[in-house]
Every structure is written in C-alpha cells, then in structure tokens.
Design brief:
Radius of gyration: 24 Å
Distance between the termini: 85 Å
CATH class of the largest domain: Alpha Beta
Number of domains: 3
CATH architecture of the largest domain: 3-Layer(aba) Sandwich
Strand order of the largest sheet: 2-1-3-4-5-11
Number of helices: 13
Helix content: 40-55%
Largest sheet: 6 strands, parallel
Structural class: alpha/beta
CATH topology of the largest domain: Rossmann fold
Strand content: 15-25%
Order of helices and strands: HHHHEHEHEHEEHEHEHEHEHEHEE
C-alpha cells in the first residue's frame, strides 16, 4: 500500500506539504501543488484517511450576497473575490439580495440553508446589520466585513479610507481653481455615502467654501437615472457649479450626460469626477477622473482571512485599511475664470 511518505518522496516535498495539498491549504504554490497531485495520481495514493478527510474537512465554499449586479462596484468586487477564490482553490456561492426588503435575516437564513456555507463575505449594507451578525454568530458561521461603518467583535473588517479619498479628489478640484463644486451623494443607507460626503465637506471647509454659495449637494442613491435628475437640477441653478464630484462612477457618467444635454463641454465648462474606477470610467469620453479602490487586494485579503479561520466567530476585532489611488483623467480641468 502506498504511504504518504512515498508520495512526499516522489514529489520531492515533505509529508506536511502533501497533507496540506490534500487539505486544500491556500498558501501552496501552484508548482508544488501540481507536483504533489501528479505523485498522488502516479502512485494511486488513496488511503482510508482520504475518505475520512473528505467527510470531516470544512466546506470549500464561501458565501456572498449582493443587491445590484449591474453596479460597477459590486461587479468589480465580485470579480476580485472570484479570482481570489480560484487562487485559493475555493468556491464562491453568490446570490442576489433584496436590499429594499425588510426581511434581511430571513434572506440570509434561506441562503445558509440552501448552500450550507460556513464562511461568508458581507458587503454593504449587510456588513452593518447587527441582526445578520447575530444570526451568523448563532450558527457558528465565520464572516468578513467589507467596508463596514465600525469594527465588529470577533470579525475582520476590510476597507479603504473613503473619507480621505473623497477629501483628496475634492482637493484636486480645488487645486484646479474650482470654487463652486457640487456633490452627488449615494444611497442614504450605505455608510460610504456619509463618509464620501464628509470628505467632500471637509475639503470645502478647509478652503473656506463650506457655504451655499460654493457647495451644492444632491442625492443620486448610486443610480444613473436618479443622478441624471440631480445633475440637471444642479446645472439649472442660477449660478452653475464649475465642477461636480459624484460618489460613484455611474452617477458621474449621468452628470456628463446632463452636461451634454445642456450644451456644456466636459471639462472646459464643467469638470466631473467619480469614485470606484469602474469599467465605465475608462470606457466613456471624456474618461473619468476617479478614485481607484483596491478591489483585488480586498478580495484576496477576504479569502485569505476566511481560509485561515478554522472555527466559527470569536476573538478580537480587526480593521484592515487598504490604500486607494487617485486617477486623474480627461474629465477634470482648470475652472473657467469667466464663470467665477
């Protein structure tokens, strides 16, 4: 009978490495994993312990729910998590979540009952639901929070500094000479909406412009059509803003359309900035100045954290803040002096 020692010798690795490959341990190079798998196949290694391992090992699926598959943010995050799962030899169980419904806990319960996942990634707004946290704790399900408003005991939170990023992109507009700047905010139930508005207002206050004559705010709820209405309202005011910063790229694209409808040139007459660096940001013209979120790093960190979690919830809370990047493109330029 072939032993694990013989497999290790054939693959040129330690028995511990063979055991880790059999357990789908994530931190094994693809080259080493391939050598071990080839050795197992060549030696027809199938001990009784393998069957026992298959019965007792943790499920390899990780669960995630999100509400709007057309959202640039969620599409980018989903792709990043899928890639991270593939690299870690895990599987992603994804389901649509009715964010507007009142039965959030029931939706998560049904998802858990159908998929039997023991690890989950919670994205906004689920990441801030204390009722969902309690449900997962009660069921012994480990979870990672993406961009929550606060740290949660026993969980790892992965985020970027939305307030700082919004402050920086507003300062970029101010440095271009803009003194009347509009902001289109996101969905009121998402904490990033508040953080991005705070960053905008902080930058305007520092410049001495935190007053109705220089600062204009409308809501777009992260949606194109609602943002189009809000942008048209801003661009119909007696004194036009010379720049508009929208809290995501989809809303920023609505601002560009509204400007075109009114015969305004971007960026000559109006500078426009977005947030997220979603695909539309580089596909439209002019391409958008925006904030690039570290989606790949977020996905990788979430999966690695869950892969290293052997049991259910517990332990101290941890907040991982990943760096963002300001990308300056053609949609922003110097303010027109004749409009000041």
């Amino acid at each position: 009978m072939t032993t694990i020692t013989q497999v290790a010798k054939r693959a040129g690795v330690s028995t511990k490495t063979v055991s880790r490959v059999m357990s789908n341990y994530p931190h094994i190079s693809s080259k080493t994993r391939l050598k071990v798998e080839e050795a197992i196949q060549e030696l027809t290694f199938a001990p009784v312990s393998v069957a026992r391992h298959l019965r007792l090992t943790e499920p390899l699926s990780i669960g995630m729910l999100y509400g709007d598959p057309s959202s640039g943010y969620q599409a980018r995050l989903n792709h990043a998590v899928l890639k991270a799962c593939s690299d870690a030899r895990r599987y992603l169980a994804v389901e649509l979540f009715d964010e507007a419904g009142t039965d959030w806990v029931r939706q998560v319960e049904m998802f858990l009952d159908r998929t039997h996942v023991r690890k989950m990634i919670l994205v906004p707004p689920l990441c801030d639901s204390t009722e969902v946290h309690q449900l997962l704790d009660d069921r012994g399900v480990s979870y990672v929070l993406i961009s929550p408003s606060r740290a949660v005991l026993g969980s790892v939170a992965i985020t970027m500094d939305d307030r700082l990023a919004s402050k920086e992109i507003t300062e970029h507009l101010l440095a271009l000479g803009h003194r009347r700047i509009g902001h289109i905010s996101g969905h009121p139930d998402h904490v990033v909406t508040l953080l991005r508005r705070q960053g905008f207002e902080e930058a305007m206050a520092r410049a001495g412009l935190a007053n109705p004559a220089h600062m204009f705010v409308e809501s777009g709820r992260f949606q194109f059509r609602e943002s189009l209405v809000s942008a048209e309202k801003l661009l119909s005011a007696p004194r036009l803003p010379t720049a508009i910063f929208a809290a995501n790229d989809e809303m920023a694209s609505a601002v560009v359309m509204a400007a075109n409808r009114q015969g305004l040139r971007v960026p000559d007459d109006l500078s426009v900035a977005g947030f997220d660096d979603s695909p539309i940001a580089s596909a439209m013209w002019p391409d958008l100045t925006t904030v690039s979120q570290p989606f790949e790093a977020i996905g990788r960190s979430a999966i690695e954290t869950l892969a290293d979690t052997s049991g259910g919830p517990g332990g101290a809370s941890q907040m991982i803040v990943l760096p963002h990047r300001l990308i300056m493109r053609a949609s922003t330029g110097p303010a027109r002096t004749d409009l000041s």
